[in-house]
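Ticket #4471: structure export looks truncated?
Reporter: QA, pipeline team
Priority: medium

Steps to reproduce: submit the single chain below to the structure queue and open the exported record.
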Amino acid sequence: MQDYIEMINKLSVENEKKVFLLVMDGLGGLETTPGVGTELEAARTPNMDALAAEAACGLLDPIAPGFTPGSGPAHLSLFGYNPVKYAIGRGVLASAGIGFPMEKTDVAARGNFCTVDGGGIVTDRRAGRIPTSKNAELCEQLGSIEIDGVEVFVKPVMDYRCAVIFRGKGLDGRVKDTDPQQTGKPPLEAVAAAPEAELTAQLANKFVSIVAERLEGETPANYILMRGFDNVPDIPQFGDFTKMRAASIAVYPDYKGITRLIGMNVLEPGPSISDEAATLKECFDNHEYFYFHVKKTDSYGEDGNFDAKVHIIEETDAIIPTIMNLKPDVVAITGDHSTPALLKSHSWHPLPLLLWSNCCRPDGVRKFGEHACAAGGLGRMISTSLLPVMMANALKLLKFGA
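Actual output as written to the record:
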């Protein structure tokens, strides 16, 4: 996969043009009823359709064709980072998202409070999507934990998700997940993926045993699954190589985390899409790049709720006039990955992309949807190409070579 960061750094120039990226998490879908289309195609999106008619459209592969991405690498790719080279574990993203002050020697994992039955089988990986208030109670109930001289912090993130941070000597984040990724199976043991991580894996397994003991009798959240173990990485800062002041507008902590790690200005909107739009208006004069994230398209896809995902897409479409009234110079609308309600999970399917600017080349696409975008002039790109294409349309990249 191409890494454009060094080239962007050499060619980028400052100007006042505004670049806006709208990411509907898990946007890509599949048809569940013949003739209805995907969730995006079934949605009433007059504003996005009108924008598509003036835009260049295409498809994006977050990693490469056939690979199903997690949210972290999918977002890194959208921001121009090679997600294989700059891998960031979900635990670090979760910790950064809640503003936890991680140290370089810490190891973090993202935890899911879950439900296991009397036989130790996972019956619900998300514990019925317990509310964040209950999550905070569970974290408080777990209290202070120290294992073999290593301090363990358990902090609520949102809904059923928490961050687990191990602090001590000799820790290494190369540990495999304990989440089996499906119900009907027992949780996995933490296993070291490198000899240096053996101690961390042992600590993780001891931690899980302590959690199971302290949550015994709780319902529905009586166990914990962990994934995305990692240390804090060294990563180029977005504003340094793009020469743009970047604003991050997201409700969910993980997306605040990834943008905080790459140096964006992380704002604090209210919980609704209209609240996010209000935050965009407030910060518009002070930044040149805007990342605007909508989460529930992904959540409803994972729930298998086709109609609810359609509704969120329609709710997002309603704020497009607000965005365009701010007069951005470049607008891109896409997702980070596909989450079809049919599959109830992330998938490898490419994402629809709409790219509008005053100097784009409109291609005849008249509706923003997967099938229409497949015929668009941008063709099928890897997501890492989106940032330079957006910057080019904002006249922020110099010519390469003589």
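Status: closed, not a bug. The export was complete when the record was re-opened. Leaving a note from the reviewer for reference: DSSP finds 15 helices and 14 strands in the chain.
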